[in-house]
Fold this protein.
Amino acid sequence: MSVIATIVVGVDGSSSIMGSSKAVTSTVDRESFLKRRRLVDCIIIGGNTARNEPYSKTPVPLVIVSRHEHPNLPAAHVWNLDPQIALSKARKEFGENILIEGGSSFITYLLEKSAIDVLELSVSSATGGEDFFDYEKFLSLADSVEKNVISDTTFYTAKFKKQI
């Protein structure tokens, strides 16, 4: 059983530029991102991510945690629930291996609630965006951190026990 959160940020901590992660990500990050999502039972995203990122096709069930409907994603499950409750419901309905692909606020909330086992963080060379994620804080709170640099992207795998 594992809950993995994935997020890409620029070196300044910005997770989006003009509302999207497209200008923050890198080619090597995108390859890693696509490979990772094929290995889980379900993907959970927040409503803001659903509105701003391309999620028309996913290899596993997609859950959107939001107070709003998302007609552009008719195959998605839209749950108006607290993210922790949605996580429990997703485990029961889809399986134990869950991937969180939300934005910085969504992932920060779940990290602060100790609901995430592993943070897969990609840090690109981008700067000047918005929606900042305090990745240095969470890396410092992890029980273990692995670092791997490929091209212009630094990849971190931070593992947490259940108390942050």
In short: The chain has a mean pLDDT of 89. The CA atoms of residues 25 and 54 lie 14 Å apart.
